[in-house]
Structure to design on (325 residues):
């Protein structure tokens, strides 16, 4: 069909075609073809501007036409989510890994892989938003922070001159070893609490997102 | 009143498909012709939205389409009733007759 339409009509048709992209391809193509045929039938090549405007007005807006064409499609086309993520299974796995990965460090590579997998699942989640994902990352890396802090503390202890009891001078009741001794368990407890809090937050957010869908 | 036209719009949309079937009962027609007939009867606010209705009827196999060459322009798509379409139209005609007479009776009682 090579009939050229008046510019406003072609513009109307172009807008229709662009909006019809939201429809299944066959339906979209048929709709555009039907409307093109209608415009060709309604508008002889010598149609004046008033007639063109009248025909387009009678047609209604491209939005209304596409809406009618979409009215018997499923209400909200769901984005294609991989099966594991549809019900939040991937997220649950991520949460478990976030908690246990330090324990898996007994076999260093396994622990690291577990952390990487956990973070990957967090960032590809369809249910968690950006804030949640940042929380998840922080939770995952907290034990790393603890390890670094522990290492630093250990090296500090190692480089301090240890006052032995042989010289008669004893370290005070709050000697370096003792203060380090306090710090590590406290830090450990804080980090454990933060991890638990972070995981709980993510679990609640997941539940909310799943039930709202 | 705006409320009236919203109400009428809803009523029209509900029966539009059957009006299309009825217009095809005696002869096959092409799209533009059907739309013009419906518009003349005041049955459509937006003529463009008749075409999705025609597609729906075709998908439901109540109408058939075929292309026919036309003397003065590009080929046109003609719509015709299928046997299933004829049955659906007959069913609707019976249901509508009974429904509209019931509604008329109830409403006119309230208005007298």
């Amino acid at each position: 069909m090579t009939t050229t339409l008046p510019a406003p009509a072609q513009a109307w048709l172009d807008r229709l075609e662009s909006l019809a992209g939201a429809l299944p391809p066959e339906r979209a193509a048929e709709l555009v073809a039907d409307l093109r045929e209608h415009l060709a039938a309604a508008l002889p090549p010598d149609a004046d501007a008033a007639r063109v405007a009248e025909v387009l007005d009678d047609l209604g807006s491209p939005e209304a036409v596409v809406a009618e064409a979409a009215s018997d499609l499923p209400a909200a086309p769901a984005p294609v989510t991989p099966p594991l993520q549809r019900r939040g299974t991937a997220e649950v796995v991520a949460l478990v890994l976030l908690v246990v990965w330090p324990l898996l460090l007994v076999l260093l590579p396994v622990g690291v892989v577990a952390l990487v997998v956990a973070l990957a699942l967090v960032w590809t989640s369809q249910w968690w938003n950006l804030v949640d994902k940042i929380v998840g990352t922080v939770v995952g890396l907290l034990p790393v922070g603890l390890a670094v802090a522990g290492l630093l503390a250990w090296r500090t202890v190692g480089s301090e001159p240890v006052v032995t009891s042989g010289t008669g001078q004893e370290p005070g009741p709050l000697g370096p070893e003792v203060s380090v001794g306090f710090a590590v368990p406290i830090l450990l407890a804080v980090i454990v609490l933060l991890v638990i809090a972070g995981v709980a937050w993510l679990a609640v957010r997941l539940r909310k997102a799943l039930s709202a869908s | 009143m705006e409320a009236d036209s919203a109400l009428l719009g809803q009523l029209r949309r509900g029966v539009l498909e059957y009006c299309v079937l009825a217009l095809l009962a005696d002869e096959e027609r092409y799209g533009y012709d059907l739309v013009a007939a419906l518009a003349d009867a005041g049955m459509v606010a937006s003529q463009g939205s008749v075409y999705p209705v025609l597609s729906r009827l075709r998908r439901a196999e109540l109408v058939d389409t075929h292309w026919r060459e036309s003397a003065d322009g590009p080929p046109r798509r003609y719509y015709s009733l299928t046997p299933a379409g004829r049955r659906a139209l007959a069913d609707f005609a019976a249901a509508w007759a009974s429904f509209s007479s019931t509604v008329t009776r109830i409403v006119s009682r309230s208005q007298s």
Chain A has a mean pLDDT of 82. Chain A touches chain B at residues 1, 3, 16, 27, 30-31, 34-35, 37-38, 40-42, 58-62, 64-65, 67-69, 71-72 (CB under 8 Å). Residues 176-212 of chain A form the longest helix (37 residues).
